[in-house]
Amino acid sequence: MDTPDSHEIIANETTPLVPAKGSKKPRTPLPKLQIGILLTLQLAEPIASTSIFPYINQLIRELGITGGDEAAVGYYAGVVESLFYVAQASAVLRWARLSDRIGRKPVLVIGLSGTCISMLCFGLSTTFWSLVISRCMCGFLNGNIVVMKTMMGELTDSTNMAQGFALIPTAWYIGSFFGPLMGGTLARPQDHWPALFSGTFWGKYPYFLPCAVAACLLVLALVVMSIFLEETLSTKRRPKFTSTTVVISSSPDGESLAQKSMANMPLRSLLTPAIVIPIANLAMLAFLDVSFMVLLPLFFSTPIYLGGLGFDPASIGSWMALFGIIDAIFQAFFCARIIDWVGPKRLFCVSVSCYAPVMAMFPIMSWILRVRGKVDHAVTSALLCQLVIVVAWHMACGTISLFITASAPTNNVLGAINGLGQTSASVARIIGPALTTSLFAASKEHNLLGGNAVFVILIMLAGGFRWLASQLPDEIQDRDE
Question: What sign has the CA pseudo-torsion 348, 353, 357, 362?
């Protein structure tokens, strides 16, 4: 005799464990114009921020604050790079919450304007403290990255979210290609093009030109954004604008009041395990990634006798540009497909596991250079090998954004959740540069573990990060349900 229970058992036993591909929802087309403008803004920011990397260590040397101690350059460079994140951490959550109330575009205008002004101030700096003030100004006035991520979440749904968020790191890496290339090429223009830049101004401010070009790009991005970018916050956007994600309510006034109420809900109510675990992973990812990003130019510029490669600013810019463009191409064309194929959590865990070999390549290159006596094809091959591993590591950047966006109970607190994530990431980036560059300097000064203590410590931290990654949910929640 058939019973409802027996039918249910048969249905459960015959249901495939892996859903057929045909059962997936059709992918919603991305709103190309809006996302294109968003990526233009995202592109301008890393160009401005990474353009200082090729020459920051040389600038510190020329300011004379190290007293000629080459090993101490890392301390001061780390302080300058960390203070940006100190200022950003103190303000980014406020910008995120403000964007939930007044809209995304006004906050972007403030952020782009602040970055532009601070870059000009950086180029005109002639003392260590003026560098510090300009970087702090840039961080305090800049809440752009959290607003951009929030807007990407509002412009996508569960079917195209991976495709959309994969483009954010792609834009960053393209900017990371042009930024160091521009900074290394345009730094000290009086040395490269004396006929054009022979005035006393360029002798007094030898690093103003890359900062001025970066500021011009930011102004261009600001104009494009003001004219063409539509507001995505549901309570502030124009009626003609329709987002991919639509909330249905029986009363427009009631919906607006409910959304405003959600936007003002206390942050404590958002601190649930479903939200905290992805944010903790983002913070650890940010710490380890910024540690690598400051180690790379520092390792490049460190003299060979101290275990570095002894590159000049132009060579540093070229290599960092290569890292950025290869990263960007891979993330743009393959990251979303790999996420769909492997799954977000599995890909994230694999990417996290790549950090240890990335760190191991630094002492390997130092050893090769000591054996070979010069930077030849063997060292170049090791650098290219590290580049391949870095590309795999950076797939984690786009993947973690999926978990954070999916953790939001409603879109009206998405800005707050991204703000919490960015605040945590900024705190991690405060600690990362100062700690890593200090460990690098201490490792070289005191020959700790053969000068490689900093790499060993970061490899151990990467092991803890791998465990933290395993705590993420196995599947990303469908926001449309």
Answer: positive
